[in-house]
Design a protein that fits this description.
Number of strands: 16
Bound molecules: histidyl-adenosine monophosphate
Oligomer: single chain
Strand content: 15-25%
Strand order of the largest sheet: 1-5-6-11-10-9-7-8
Radius of gyration: 28 Å
Largest sheet: 8 strands, mixed
Shape: elongated
Length: 424
Amino acid sequence: MNLVDNSIQAVRGMNDLLPDVIELWQHVESAARDILHAYGYREIRVPLVEKTELFARSIGHVTDIVEKEMYSFEDRSGDSLTLRPEGTAGCVRAAIENGLLHNQVQRFWYAGPMFRHERPQKGRYRQFHQIGVEAFGMQGPDIDAELILMSCRLWEALGLRELTLEINSLGTPESRTRYRKVLIDYLTEYRDQLDADSLRRLEHNPLRVLDSKDPAMRDIINRAPNMFDYLDDGARAHFEELQSYLNEAQVSYVVNPRLVRGLDYYTHAVFEWTTDKLGAQSAICAGGRFDGLVEQLGGKPTPAAGFAIGMERLAELVSLVGLPDIDSAPHVYMVLPGSLAEHRGMRLAETLRSSGLRVLCNCGGGSMKSQMKRADKSAARFALILGDEECAQGKVTFKNLRISGPQELIDQSSVVEHIQKRLQ
Ligand code: HAM
């Protein structure tokens, strides 16, 4: 690193994605895009900044995200704005505002950066990226199952095995209220054994106590009343039918009654895909149904479900299982010693590109030796050398940079054909 004293560094937890990594990201994104389109999802792009109230009302006032993690600020007009911590709220706001939900079924996807002021560690960042999907107007559980099958197809396309799918049902708001009461009574009995975080949650958001990662709390949590026992018949039937879809499709899953999610808008089925290969930050994709959110944000009651994938975690996982051969190196490096060659060479390079070849032109001059060095470093397969002599004869010298062998003098008019033969 070449840091001088007055250099400015990136904000903690916000990372540069450098070209070597971007190739992997593009591979993942393009696989995701193909699959999302195959299931009829259409892209939506919404602003990175929304009114703070949008997130408070949707994610929930008493959640870690809203209480502790949002990048909120007052703009010059005095409005409280927030950098989006997730994509669902903005997507719902946009769908309502643009009248996209009136008696309509919609399937949207989005991708981009999200911001949460969490404690940075491997797999957990303050600016991170998600690919998310939201489906509106379908009661499920068929659409819930379709969402899960779609994520399965992405794992398969990326060569990922051994991911674990956990599912749970959070029921309806009514069944949750019933369960909440029972849970508060139970946890209050153990009040003196609860850690500080759980004590705080007990007051405001008791279900989140079930999500505690503190090992000392495990026993109390394991013996807590089971949410399933409080589901109403409709919620139970919905969850059972989702499981029967998954069984038919031979998707393995674990029912985890402690899976509660950190955002308040969920109802009925929720799910999370995890891996044991990334350490503590093991969730690579999570989502579920959020039937009440559209109405909560001012729209007509509309059933909805979706999920979001954490791109940093997914890309890391893909890199661990081994990358496919992503070849974005140039096919050809143009070595152009002399000003006549620079001009002719640029024209020839355009002809090569028009036939689909990736061509890197030597720019900025330099001796033949230094240009050949750059050609080697560029990872190109071939060099084309165009000196004064070649220019005068309408020829070009072809050199294979990967396999040693004699250089060949070829006609400029047949150079495309020559290269394409060597590429086969
Ligand atoms: P979430 O569980 O908060 O859900 O985030 C989804 C995924 O984003 C996580 O499983 C994880 O892979 C990634 N992620 C979250 N926070 C971070 C972070 N600080 N650094 C790196 N990756 C992170 C949602 O955001 C919901 N909006 C998902 C959804 C869409 N539910 C319905 N539709």
